[in-house]
Structures are given as structure tokens and as C-alpha cells.
Write a structure and sequence with these properties.
CATH topology of the largest domain: BirA Bifunctional Protein, domain 2
Number of strands: 21
Shape: elongated
Number of helices: 14
Helix content: 25-40%
CATH class of the largest domain: Alpha Beta
CATH architecture of the largest domain: 2-Layer Sandwich
Strand content: 25-35%
Length: about 400
């Protein structure tokens, strides 16, 4: 296995593991789950500011719902299912039918639209064992899943909002640019050709209005509608499909979604499916390979390690660590009876981007010596260091 493979990086940094008793599943270790939660909390704040309300839908739903939505016909052989007496159930491979149930629970007015839901949807798909690949292709994963119910006139604005969101998010993760693909009708699909003609024309117009010039990906749309796919290029030049926004006129029809318009008539909403990362597991794997395991300060599982230079400074090192921890930094402490060069090497091998050295001089003056991964060094007062590092340590949203 290549040392830059995310599985090798995950093992070296003690982030996660997989084993035969859970094929295609992930055992997250504390350091790996710390990164996972940073990503999850970050996108949760972004989605809240973008006008989405978070919901949670069941993992297990009756097969009849998946049949009504069309997912059973399309994905049934890859769904985990079982029978409970005379009734069949399946673990969800995606969240959209559940979100439609929330929408349908109330009578909706045109004044309620656009209505935006988001969910960290835990999904299961029975992928072939030969297709499994670390975090890139798993049987259990979490999608940053979101759905918008809107009128047709609101579609253009929602696509523009999504593009603005993606630009800000991807830039924060170190990807200033993206490639866009326009995926059109697949050979096996739901809905008439006229409906697909209309959906593709509407989404293409919305893409142009958002300033996009997508490349055509003929036949790569979902069974219910066309989509825009947002592709990132990593430092090795590899392309990764991440974000997506899909236009769907089919599922609202199949599952009976309605709203009441200004003339008191019942109308079908358009449904837009969107995800910024897709699978959080896959996005994290891509980040590990893109950065070679050297994650930026705001993403690292431990952002800094406070290392004592001598045994006499152990108490001051602990105080420094406590002050950073109170300021919500993720902190480790190294007061082992080792020389400082050894502690520096160990911190770098653990992927910790910042080492704070404290010796007799720092303890006496209540300062800290900062040693960054890129070789920069500086000495600051403790309180000043906590504030100076904050912009790089936390992503304000």
C-alpha cells in the first residue's frame, strides 16, 4: 500500500481501522473521530446559516415506501433488507424519501417555500466486496444530505445559493476552484421524456445564471432527474466528485408532495437534492491524501502539543495546555523525560502541526515558544498566543 494512501495515513496517525467482522464499515479511533466531528460541526454551521433546518429520519423503513419512491426497483439488490413476519423492511441507502415524509406531514403553502431540510444521514448500501476501498467506498457512510422544496421560479436562486456555499466551503478546505459536470438522463429512469426535457432545460438555465459552464456528462443523471456535479482536483492532479445538486420533478409526484398556491390550488413542488461533501467518510479520505496526513491547524486531531524542555517545567506545560484547552483548542501535553528534538519529531510523525515548547525562560516570563510545521518560530505571551493562533485554528462561519 502506498504511503500516501489514506488507509496507510489512517494507520500511521491512529485514525481508524476496518476489519473482517465489519466489512465495509469503519471503526473510528479518538483521533480520527475528532477530525470527523470538526468536519461535521463545520458543515452544520454552514447549513444553518444557509437557511437549512436539521432533521433526523429513520434508518429502517418499510419496503413499500422504497417501492413507491422507485428506489427499490433501482437499488433493491444493493439494499440491506429483511422480513418481519409478513412485512418487509430495508435500511435506507439515502434520505430523500424520509425528507418527503416530513414535508408531507403538514399542509404547505407557497409562503413556506423554499423549505430547506438537512440531515447527517447514516446510509447503508450492500456494495460488492471487490468494490470496497477504505473510506472511499464503504457499506456504511454518512451523507451531508439536504433537500429543498420550492417552486419552479425559485430553482435558479437555489442553484446560485448552492454554488456560493460550495465556493466558500471548498476554499476553506484548500480547494479554491472546482470543475462542474452536467449529468443528463440515464437509460433507466423514471418520468416521461417531456418531463426530462423540461428538467434538463431548467437546470441548465440555472447553471448558466449561476455563472457555471459545466461539461456534459451524458447519461450520468439519477433515475429521477438531472444533476450538477462539482469536482475537486487534489495536489496530485486527481479529480474527485464531491458536491452535487439534483433537480427532481419525479419523487414529489410519486410520493404525493403538494403545496397550496396563491390561488388556493394544489401544486407539486420541485425537489432539489444537494450535498456539499457527499460521503463524509470519502471526503475525509480525500483530505488525508490531498494533505498527505499533514492537515491544517483547524482540522488536525490535536492542533498543538505543549512540550516541556525539562522536568522542572512540567507544571507550567500543563498550565499552558489547560489554558489552550479552555479556549477550545485540541491539545496534547508531552512532559516525558525526553529531549526536545525527540518530542518535535514525535509531534510531526503524529501529524500535529504546532509544538509549543516551554523551558525555564518561558516559565519565568509566562511566555510560550511556538514552533510551526513549516519551520516558523516565535515567542509570545501565553494570552497573546491563544488569540494570535485563533484565526488559523478555527474556521469562523
Amino acid at each position: 500500500m502506498d504511503i500516501d494512501d489514506h488507509r496507510a495515513i489512517g494507520n500511521r496517525l491512529d485514525l481508524f481501522h476496518q476489519q473482517e467482522e465489519g466489512p465495509g464499515m469503519v471503526f473510528w479511533h479518538p483521533r480520527g473521530y475528532a477530525i470527523y466531528r470538526v468536519i461535521e460541526d463545520y458543515i452544520r454551521r454552514r447549513m444553518r446559516r444557509a437557511g437549512f433546518r436539521e432533521i433526523k429520519t429513520p434508518q429502517l423503513l418499510a419496503r413499500s415506501l422504497w417501492e413507491a419512491s422507485g428506489h427499490w426497483e433501482k437499488f433493491g439488490e444493493n439494499m440491506f433488507s429483511f422480513a418481519d413476519g409478513e412485512r418487509a423492511f430495508a435500511l435506507k441507502p439515502m434520505s430523500c424519501p424520509g425528507h418527503l415524509q416530513v414535508f408531507n406531514k403538514r399542509t404547505r403553502s407557497y409562503r413556506d417555500l423554499p423549505l430547506r431540510y438537512c440531515e447527517f444521514g447514516a446510509c447503508h448500501r450492500n456494495e460488492a466486496s471487490g468494490a470496497l476501498h477504505g473510506l472511499m467506498r464503504t457499506r456504511a457512510f454518512v451523507q451531508d444530505d439536504a433537500h429543498i422544496f420550492c417552486t419552479e421560479e425559485q430553482i435558479e436562486g437555489e442553484v446560485r445559493r448552492f454554488c456560493e456555499l460550495l465556493r466558500a466551503v471548498y476554499a476553506d478546505f484548500g480547494f479554491p476552484d472546482f470543475i462542474v459536470g452536467f449529468s443528463t438522463r440515464p437509460s433507466v429512469r423514471a418520468g416521461s421524456d417531456e418531463l426530462w426535457d423540461h428538467a434538463e432545460a431548467v437546470l441548465a438555465a440555472a447553471a448558466r445564471a449561476a455563472g457555471l459552464a459545466p461539461r456534459l456528462q451524458a447519461g450520468d443523471g439519477t433515475f429521477y432527474g438531472p444533476k450538477l456535479e462539482f469536482i475537486l482536483r487534489d495536489r496530485q492532479g486527481r479529480e474527485w466528485q464531491c458536491g452535487t445538486i439534483q433537480l427532481d420533478f419525479v419523487l414529489p409526484e410519486r410520493l404525493g408532495a403538494e403545496y397550496v398556491d396563491a390561488d388556493n390550488r394544489r401544486r407539486r413542488p420541485a425537489m432539489m437534492h444537494q450535498a456539499v461533501f457527499g460521503s463524509i467518510e470519502r471526503f475525509l479520505a480525500m483530505l488525508l491524501e490531498h494533505h498527505g496526513g499533514d492537515l491544517p491547524l483547524w482540522l488536525a486531531p490535536e492542533q498543538l502539543v505543549v512540550a516541556s524542555i525539562g522536568e522542572a517545567q512540567a507544571a507550567y506545560a500543563q498550565r499552558v495546555a489547560d489554558d489552550f484547552a479552555k479556549a477550545e483548542y485540541r491539545v496534547a501535553v508531552d512532559v516525558r523525560p525526553e529531549r526536545l528534538p525527540r518530542k518535535i519529531v514525535d509531534a510531526r510523525e503524529s501529524g500535529i502541526p504546532l509544538l509549543i515548547a516551554v523551558g525555564a525562560r518561558e516559565a519565568k516570563s509566562e511566555t510560550v515558544s511556538l514552533r510551526h510545521r513549516d519551520g516558523r518560530q516565535s515567542t509570545l505571551g501565553l494570552a497573546e498566543a491563544i488569540e494570535v493562533l485563533r484565526p488559523d485554528a478555527f474556521r469562523a462561519v
